Amino acid sequence: MNFASDNVLGASPKVLQALLDANEGSEPAYGVDAHTRRAEEMLAEAFEHEVVVFLVATGTGANALALSALTPPWGAVFCHAESHVLDDECGAPEMFTDGAKLVGIEGAGGKFTPEGLAAALERYPRGVVKAVQPSAVSVSQVTEAGTLYSLAELDAIFAVAKPAGLRVHLDGARFANAMVALGCSAAEMSWKRGVDVVSFGATKNGCLACEAVVFFDKALAENFQYRRKRSGHTVSKGRLLGAQMVGYLSDGHWIDNARHANRMAATLAEGLAAAPGVRLAWPTQANEVFAVLPPAADRALKAAGFRGAPWSSGSLPPGFTIGPDEVFLRFVTSFATRPEHVAGLVEAVRAA
């Protein structure tokens, strides 16, 4: 009944079984094992492209290391003003890039526009010694507001980024949830749009602790193995990362998990939207619901054992305000969310 995050649940049974199976016998260490090789092959199949893959245990490691491969220390990385890489990585991208500047772009619903990116680029003219040099753009899919960039919106942003010489990073902590919601393939949401590197998230959607940095250009991955090792993100028992990713990708498990999480979120959003005194800040597009509640409903949820996460009002739609007597919460569903818990949460709000 904890809807504060999709990180509060454990791993899925299929991923745990893959880990147990890989635990038998011995394998070479540091990621040169058969499980990791199979994970790399499966990611290439999922993306329909030759890829260079590096497995890490955390999303922060994946994002910060990916960006370090795209920008020099004097570079600028453009991202949303409330993006995870800017607000929630404790400065890791700046540290791992040896000091590159993250430039936040405002935008409603966790998304920035091509016009916003173009305006930001004008502030950092290329070749001016006093300014950081435009190097990369990072797009979150799903965003921090639980919203999605459509494929057309990605195209429009990258049509500004690419001519400006920017490399493109996709923060895909909830990659599967976004892909399922858009009804597209992994390829259509990444390299076919012009993405250079993806932080492919698996932990939130069923893994124990496993993310992948996926490069579509071998040249960008040059020396990345040293970046990963130097940062402390090369796991000695690398087969246990590889096994998680194999279990996650096998038989469409990752897609099934995301589909269930998204379906539970849609049910929750529908129920909350119909409850008296409740407003949704944005349409629910993946597995996150952002709701404005009366204080009585918030108290009722806590008393019943339900938990959401208080959220920032920074990128609310124009004209959408939260009153001093209202509570703004995020509710996140997952592969393990039970329908009766969704129904119970909605009923608690209605009763209040």
Automatic annotation (TrEMBL):
Keywords: Lyase, Pyridoxal phosphate. It comes from the Bacteria. Its cofactor is pyridoxal 5'-phosphate. Its EC number is 4.1.2.48. InterPro entries: ArAA_b-elim_lyase/Thr_aldolase, Low_specificity_L-TA_bact, PyrdxlP-dep_Trfase, PyrdxlP-dep_Trfase_major, PyrdxlP-dep_Trfase_small. The keyword Lyase applies. Residues 3-290 form the Aromatic amino acid beta-eliminating lyase/threonine aldolase domain. It catalyses: L-allo-threonine = acetaldehyde + glycine; L-threonine = acetaldehyde + glycine. It is an enzyme of class 4 (lyase). It holds the Pfam family Beta_elim_lyase. Belongs to the threonine aldolase family. Catalyzes the cleavage of L-allo-threonine and L-threonine to glycine and acetaldehyde. Homotetramer. This is L-threonine aldolase.
